[in-house]
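Weekly sync, protein design subgroup
Attendees: M.S., D.O., the rotation student, P.L. (late)

Item 1: inverse folding check
M.S. brought a backbone from last month's batch and wanted to see whether the design step gives back something sensible before we order anything. D.O. pointed out we never logged the input encoding, so this time it goes straight into the notes. Structure tokens as presented (77 positions):
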């Protein structure tokens, strides 16, 4: 089976230079930095989406059936 897979996969050409010779390659983030940045971004995005959803629920609470028009913790006068 190993021969079948190898026969249908194309051979990749060798690069004429190493990654050490690429201009500005030292400015690229490390793989760890890329992963950390992606998770930090996703965390911030999820937090802002949660806040938005909570704000929408708070703003529309008086419109929902059975909901009081007075804020929670306060008694109607």
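Designed sequence read out in the meeting:
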């Amino acid at each position: 089976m190993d021969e079948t897979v190898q026969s249908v996969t194309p051979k990749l050409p060798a690069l004429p230079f190493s990654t050490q010779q690429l201009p500005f390659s030292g400015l690229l983030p490390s793989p760890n930095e890329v992963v950390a940045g992606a998770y930090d971004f996703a965390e911030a995005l999820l937090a802002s989406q949660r806040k938005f959803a909570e704000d929408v629920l708070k703003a529309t609470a008086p419109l929902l059936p059975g909901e009081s028009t007075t804020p929670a913790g306060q008694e109607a006068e």
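Discussion: Helices lie at 2-8, 31-60. Residues 31-60 form the longest helix (30 residues).
Action: P.L. to compare against the previous round before Friday.
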